[in-house]
Every structure is written in C-alpha cells, then in structure tokens.
Amino acid sequence: MGSAGDNKTISIEKTPSGMDVYEVLNSNQIICPNHYQGKLFENQLANLKNQVESSSLYRKYRLKELLNKMIPSVMLALQLFYVIKKG
Q1: Whole-prediction pTM value?
Q2: Other Cβ atoms within 10 Å of 31 Cβ, number
Q3: Which residues contact 19 (CB under 8 A, 6 or more apart)?
Q4: CA nearest neighbour of 46 among 73, 17, 87
Q5: How far is residue 32 from each of residues 5, 9, 78, measured CA to CA in Å?
Q6: Most buried residue, 1, 28, 33, 85, by most Cβ within 10 Å?
Q7: Which ranges of 1-87 does DSSP label H, i.e. alpha helix?
C-alpha cells in the first residue's frame, strides 16, 4: 500500500491470528518476498522455517540485486526523457 502524499509504502502482513505492518525507512523500495518481515511475525517458527525450506530468501536477495542493477539505468532513462521533453 502506498501514499504519495506521505511519501510512504508499507506492506500489510496478515495471518489467521494477527496482522502487522512492514515499513522500510529511508528507502524508496519495498521488497515483498514470500515470508513475513514485520516485527510481529519475523521470528515466529513457521516464518523462519519457511525462509529455510523455500526459495523466499533467495528471491528477496535476487530482487535486491536486480533492483540495484536496474536503478542506474532507469535514472539515466528518466534524465534523458526529461532533457528530450524539455527540448
């Protein structure tokens, strides 16, 4: 869930027994792998087991790697677009 007015993005994490909100501070990215990252669920046994037994952690780190490679290219494209548009 995102808010341009607040300049925030959060992930709402829900289980049958509870709910938490995960927010990344000082970042313009939020990565949502297939495991809980919020304080309420991050250390629960089922969540830790899922991280170990699935590819969730791998996907999280791979996505970070791809985003870090992509951001300079996207920024260059945006700068070129601005220069061309400004004309």
Answers
A1: 0.60
A2: 16
A3: 12, 13, 40
A4: 17
A5: 22, 11, 25
A6: 33
A7: 45-53, 56-86
Asked if residue 41 lies in contact with residue 20, where contact means CB atoms within 8 angstroms, the answer is yes
For the sheet containing 8-15, what is the strand order? 2-3, 8-15, 18-23
CB 42 within 8 A of CB 36: yes
Cβ neighbours, 10 Å, residue 83: 9
Residue 25, Cβ neighbours under 10 Å: how many?
5
Residue range of the domain that includes 14? 2-86
- Predicted confidence pLDDT, tens digits, the chain (87 residues): 777 788 788 888 888 889 998 887 767 677 777 777 888 888 889 889 988 898 888 888 888 888 788 777 777 776 777 677 666
